[in-house]
Automatic annotation (TrEMBL):
Residues 3-57 form the HTH lacI-type domain. One of its GO terms (molecular function) is DNA-binding transcription factor activity. The keyword Ribosomal protein does not apply. Keywords: DNA-binding, Transcription, Transcription regulation. This is LacI family transcriptional regulator. The keyword Cytoplasm does not apply. Pfam families: LacI, Peripla_BP_1. It comes from Halanaerobacter jeridensis.
Amino acid sequence: MAVTIKDIAKKAGVSPTTVSRVLNNKPDVSDETKKRIQQVIDELNYNPNGIARGLVLDKTHTLGLVIPDISNPFFPEVAKGIEDKAKEAGYSVIFCNTDNHTQGEKEAIELMKSKQVDGMIVSLAINDQNKEELDELAAQDFPVVQIDRKIPESGFPAVVIDNQAAAYKATKYLIDLGHHKIAHISGDLEVKPAQDRLAGFKSALQEVGLSCKEELIREGDYSSQSGYREMKELLDLSEQPTAVFIANDLMALGAYEAVFEAGLKIPEDISIVGYDDIEVASVIRPALTTISQPEYQLGVEASKLLINSLESNEQLEQEDRILAAELVERNSSTNRK
């Protein structure tokens, strides 16, 4: 027969209410009583029913995570940081992968609400529908933290990378190597990180008076296939770029394939800088110079921000948390001076 709170109360010599207060971390129970109850819990190997506790407390101790592409190596590291921090605080995490589809994002949010998660961490595309979804959650006082991608004026805080500064750093690196004809393969320009990386790219060029020709800016979708496709387009230009800043490492892998297929060499014929520093970036040859993002820490910070709000029963802080990214120099770029 399953152990109940009444069994624990009887053996510990206290009321069931006192046991319940200890299980739910309520105040007004002495340390000595807490210790005695915990000893009995351990002796009886009591495992409280999480669903029942959730009904009593109006909490499930579950977080929802909505991510756009689980096949992108960036997001599993983010998810790991979220889950590790959540476990540490006694929360579990359920996640939905949306494949970057707006309808999938809407359905994921509705699913999380139906599962009665205590709060959500979301990474969504910028569009009117998603803005409306977040506005509705805000009207319901539903706790949400945005991660990696922030929908402007959404009313919810975000934990993000300073993508514009990082892209500026990557482009300036190529400029300092003597490159004057630099191309950019962006990510999906419906998401904020891609917009910011493009802005950082343009800013670095404009600062030194280099032209930013539209033919040298190609829009990908963060997949290796799009990197291959857009690099082929760049190589077909009458005047090929000598360097390319690519908005993520998966696209850079596709770009490598297009360069080698054209009979060219990296970095002798064309220099490449990626973004993300996924594990394979240091393994491919030549090893990829790239921007290293603190993916795991991104997840930890988002989880911490949400859980702190849930535990304190206070409104989420409105200030965004912005983490820095660093350039990792390897062998895919060379001096053109």
